[in-house]
Amino acid sequence: MATAKFEVLSNSINAPIYLRLSIKRGSTPRAKTGLIINSKDWSKDTKLPKQNTGVNKNLKTDLIKLQAYILEQYNKAYQNNITTDKQWLEHYIDVYFNRIDENKTQTKVTYWIEHIIKNAHLMDNSKGNYGLSKNRIKSYNSLLNRFIDYQSNKTINIKELDKKGFNAFKKWLFEDRAYSPSTATKFLTDLQKVVKVASEFTPIAENFNSIKFKKVKTYDDDMNVITLTELELQKIQSLKLESEALINARKWLILACYTGQRGEALLTRIKDENFIKHGKDYIIKIKQKKVNQTITIPVAPQVKEIYLSGLPYKISIQKLNTHIKTICKNAEITDLVMGKKRNKDTNRNEKKLRPKYKYISSHTGRRTFATLHYSKIPTPLIMKVTGHKKESTFLEYINQDQDNHVDILLEYYRTKELKERKESVLNVVKKAN
After folding, report:
1. pLDDT (average), residues 83-89
2. DSSP letter string over 194-210?
3. Whether residue 300 sits in one domain with residue 391
4. Do 366 and 258 reside in the same domain of the chain?
């Protein structure tokens, strides 16, 4: 069913020796053995070292033993329906040479979280490609820290993450650490992914595949949507500023509010070369990284004015958010509103009433764009700019329910009723004559 052969692909004096596992009607993963040889001492016929020195004789013996070990592990994997890819091959080569402890390290939950972080560039991603994004790696680092905190002085193994194990972690996230439903669910689903990766190498709990978590909508914990009103935008635009940094940040804020772009896209894609002449007006064409699609943004008068006078220079998101808060404070956007803000001491988001300017950030501009245009132009047209694919998600994003059709239909019925009454009165008048 499978054969294991060695390869030397370099002509150097320190050429790495690879092992290729050829599976009938399957994949052919190849991995470095960690052993090297002078390419001149490699036999292209036997695919093994030439027997011209004592060192090469010993090397041949080691390779033959490794070959037998890998085929033995493959047979076990085949019987247990375990995927035998490059990661699997690398893992068992390391086990054979005692580079990792098969009986201890491989079974630790924390080992497998670290494994994903270290091999992020090789992991499948949601776009059907390889390589995890910076945010996904950040999520796994956060999971690692939370899980180390959770297990305290004990060591939890992958096989212990059955329904009972996951429920215990879930209870700790909710009760001991008071995480919101969306944050807790994110940790739990990330941990599920860790177990799935580990399952390719080591046994897992028998009931793991039956573990399910209720899907928490993205915006369930964020019902206090912070946006800027048209009056507040006017106050910001008319505010007298002397600081070059604040003037620059104000430009970014206005651009965010009238292009609907999130932080990274705003700072990296709202640039001169993306502005295109469209008759007497302009459009902006950019590719949204998060949803992997190209969008076209009609340029509003406020954006056109900034473009023609000179786009702002790029700064970090952190500095931009700090400057934006200063601008909004100076513009007296100080009404008390409910929102969430991270407490630096507890490292938690705390929800309470604060002056509105404290909640304003670069992302506020995106929500402001959506909210200002909602009900004024068709929702699908707004979504073309924001990049939302589902109207239900868009409505949650701006904290609107899906009953907006009610007022429109009621107005239609009232208009129809008045029209019918007028026609009825006219008919009566005609008959009287």
Report:
1. 82
2. HHHHHTTTS---TTGGG
3. yes
4. yes
